[in-house]
Write a structure and sequence with these properties.
CATH superfamily of the largest domain: P-loop containing nucleotide triphosphate hydrolases
Strand content: 25-35%
Structural class: alpha/beta
Largest sheet: 7 strands, mixed
Shape: globular
Distance between the termini: 28 Å
CATH topology of the largest domain: Rossmann fold
CATH architecture of the largest domain: 3-Layer(aba) Sandwich
Length: 308
């Protein structure tokens, strides 16, 4: 990555928010050009606020990929919603991603109302523009109704994207850089793409592999804790505890004859080896911990508390 030669740069912290499963993580990975945030068919896969950093000739954008706002169920769901709202408060640009392939939902209305009171730069991203039934008209109508109701004078920029193709990301960057503040210093060194703690990054990769197989069979009662990383000259040995909420879930996570754990290891180890540029060996242990998602100590170790 080349460091820009011009003295003045445009830099901003961009909060990527929106309803769960609107494509925020896929979009972040496309913007940064690397896999920073996990992508899964299961909704609410992003649990931590992930910082993806893009540095190019125009400047630097620091993206915060937050948990998707959803109808909260239980303690962890409420905590994730609080994290999403808190992350959106401390950014320069509020980038709200909507699933344009569906009609506006209650959470979309909520984010628009939050935007109508914002003193930040606001960008509305209508994602999935390639899908049939793309609903730009419904979203613009909703926004116009909210503006009329709240007498808001917030100016919003609209961008249509398809997070699966590069062109959508380019159009979005062309929108973001001009509204980023001019500065002479980067927010982060130009040669890094994330400051996400490595234990949390490892846990995310492992959890993604489980979610792609389990999907709705084990919705969000799966917790991944990277217990230790032992570094050898040519290999990392990583010890991981997989928490489940009930004893009946343990067999599902292990699989018949350990098949599920074997599959997760075989898929996660090469990906982690490529990310950290060293051979990775995983030791996965499954532990039953009733209501682990109410345990403050475990939540802090997993990165759900004290993120911002």
């Amino acid at each position: 990555m080349n460091t820009p030669s011009i003295k003045q740069k445009h830099c901003a912290i961009v909060g990527i928010v929106g309803r769960t499963n609107s494509g925020k993580s896929t979009l972040l990975n496309l913007l940064v050009g690397e896999k920073i945030s996990i992508v899964s068919p299961t909704s609410q896969t992003t649990r931590n606020t992930v910082r993806g950093i893009l540095t190019e000739k125009r400047g630097q954008l620091v993206f915060l990929d937050t948990p998707g706002l959803h109808k909260a169920e239980g303690h962890l769901g409420t905590l994730l919603n609080q994290m999403a709202r808190a992350a959106s408060a401390g950014v320069d640009i509020l980038m709200i991603v909507f699933d344009g392939s569906k009609r506006p939902q209650l959470e979309d209305d909520g984010w628009m109302r939050r935007a109508s009171k914002s003193d930040q730069q606001v960008v509305f991203v209508l994602n999935k523009a390639d899908k049939k039934g793309f609903s730009r008209g419904a979203f613009t109508q909703l926004w116009n109704e909210i503006v009329a109701e709240t007498a808001s004078n917030v100016q919003v920029q609209w961008v249509e994207t398809n997070a699966l193709v590069r062109g959508g990301a380019d159009a979005l960057l062309d929108c973001l850089f001009p509204i980023a503040a001019a500065t002479e210093e980067y927010l982060f060194p130009a040669d890094i793409i994330s400051d996400y703690p490595r234990k949390l990054a490892i846990a995310d990769v492992i959890r993604e592999k489980f979610l792609k197989r389990l999907r709705d069979e084990l919705p969000h009662e799966l917790g991944i804790l990277v217990e230790s990383i032992t570094e050898h000259p040519n290999r990392w040995n990583i010890s991981v505890i997989v928490y489940v909420n009930r004893a009946s879930q343990k067999g599902m996570v292990i699989g018949a004859g350990g098949e599920m754990l074997k599959m997760v290891r075989e898929r996660a180890e090469p990906e982690l080896s490529a990310i950290f540029e060293t051979r990775v060996k995983l030791e996965l242990r499954v532990k039953v911990e009733s209501n682990w998602f109410k345990n403050s100590r475990l939540l802090q170790q997993m990165g759900y508390v004290g993120q911002l």
